[in-house]
Amino acid sequence: MTLPRTDRARLLFVLGVAAAVTAFTATVPLLRDWFDLRVYHGAVDTWVHHGGRLYDYRVPGTPYGFTYPPFAAVAMLPMALLGLHAAIAVALLLNLAALAWVLRILTGPAWRRYGWFGCALGLCVLALFEPLRDTISFGQVNLLLLALVLTDAWLLATGRGRWAGAGIGLAAAIKLTPALFIGLLLLAGRRREAAAATAVAAGATAFAACLAPGASRFYWTVALWDTSRVGRLDYVSNQSLQGILARLGTPDRTVWAVLVLLVLCVWASRVRRAVAVGEWATAFALTGLTTCLVSPITWVHHLVWLLPSFAVLVRAGRPRVAGALYAVLCTSVVWLWFDDASGIDGFLGSNAYTWITLGLLLWLPIGQLRSGGSTLPRSTRATAPAPNAAAPAIAAVSGHLVPASSAGSAAAGSATGADGAGRELTRNASSDPTGSARPAAEKPQSSSSRASS
Q1: Distance between CA atoms of 391 and 385, rounded to whole angstroms?
Q2: Phi-psi region for residue 165, left (φ > 0), alpha (ψ -120 to 50) or beta?
Q3: pLDDT higher than 50, residue 271
Q4: Which of the 8 DSSP states describes residue 176?
């Protein structure tokens, strides 16, 4: 297809594409009605203003309540000063700001070469990405956590290592699965940054325990271990290894534990290879993929952590592969098996996003990054002595760290921990995000109703 060349034709083309994207997002993937944000706001408001217990709150008419660690509630305390509509507006602005920062890190200044036309088309393509759509319309925190982790990458790459590790630590205190990025820092030989991340996570958790000892005690002794608070493991939105097993009717945790161990071994091996050739962004992308796979529950909206992997594919000269996989993640295809995931077609189709995540973990290119484009300023720190040693930098287009020495930095993560947003009650997606005709099942699920694709 030949793209228009005049500004007038380009403007008309962009308006047409934007209209098509708007029609798609308004009809195929049902909007989530800020359900997760309503959980956060209601729980914090009840806790602060009405003397309720944080983990006892339920959204009226549903069995769903707050499931994050207590520090997440402490971080959300300002929400108690706002009404629900004001909280929605603030959450939307924060998500857009976090997305802008994530894109700035992943692309660097290279976006300027494409001008307003290329940027406008890129935003339209981003708007189609189902995990991103769901994160924003649920009022979720995934983009904020991704921004925190990638900020550590940026700090390491620009010589501001004094503060590196804090982003990963905060993300791990808000959700649990980003703690795997501390393991990445250790594998990469970044012990000081790993210690900083651990200290920040532990300090934030201890701070929450001082402010809310009862809530902290309940979370760490009861709520954390009760997966029914989060959602049904076999719900089609659960695109993790545990989700596959649950849909196969294999509840044995031993099988899941063995698969998790195998995935972690693959992750450690591939991360070491990436670090050895100085491809730190690839290592961080692999870690994000792994957290999505090993978490017991990985709702579709958690898969925003796949974005760094697509950047790596493009930088490695695989734009067609990246485009094909990205397109599948825009289709809401897994919802076709919302009611019945049995048979070979159900096994393949209902787990489509998990297969993509697993494929990226196994075959994401290592040692094939192409140079080119601008990079962020380089850090002056190196962890291994060498003549004229230079520290890592993040490549512009892919957000890839390209160190001159084998020293590295750490970044980019996944937040796939248990959400406070399970939902599956009615077919009216505007009033409840699940739109399912099923009753509020004995194990509530988190995500939304089947899309009509």
Answers
A1: 11
A2: left
A3: yes
A4: S
Cβ-in-10-Å burial (0-12, 13-18, 19+) of 119 comes to middle
Residue count of the chain: 453
| Per-residue pLDDT tens digits for 176-219 | 999 999 999 999 888 999 999 999 999 999 999 999 999 999 99
**Sign of torsion over alpha carbons 309, 312, 318, 322:** positive
Type of residue found at 169:
G
* Type of residue found at 192: R
Phi, psi of 49 (to 5 degrees): -100, -20
Could you tell me the two tokens for 415?
């937040």
Q: Shortest CA distance to 382 belongs to which of 413, 417, 406, 365?
A: 406
Compute the distance between CA of residue 346 and CA of residue 333 in angstroms, rounded to an integer. Answer: 11
Sequence letter at residue 108: G
Radius of gyration of the chain (CA): 21
Task: Please tell me the distance from the alpha carbon of residue 250 to that of residue 237, in angstroms, as a whole number.
Answer: 17
CB 157 within 8 A of CB 409: yes
CB within 8 A of 192, min separation 6: which ones? 161, 165
Global model pTM greater than 0.85: no
pLDDT digits (tens, 9 = 90+) for 234-244: 999 999 999 99
Q: Tell me how many degrees the CA angle 119-121-124 measures, rounded to the nearest 5.
A: 110
H/E stretch holding 94: helix 84-107
Cα–Cα distance measured from residue 138 to residue 93, given in angstroms and rounded to the nearest whole number? 14
Q: Which two tokens stand for residue 225?
A: 């271990």
On the 0-12 / 13-18 / 19+ scale of CB atoms within 10 A, 354 is buried
* Residue 237, SS3 per DSSP: coil
Helices (H), 129-252: 130-138, 142-157, 166-174, 180-187, 191-211, 213-221, 241-247
Closest-CA residue to 169 (of 182, 156, 183, 187): 182
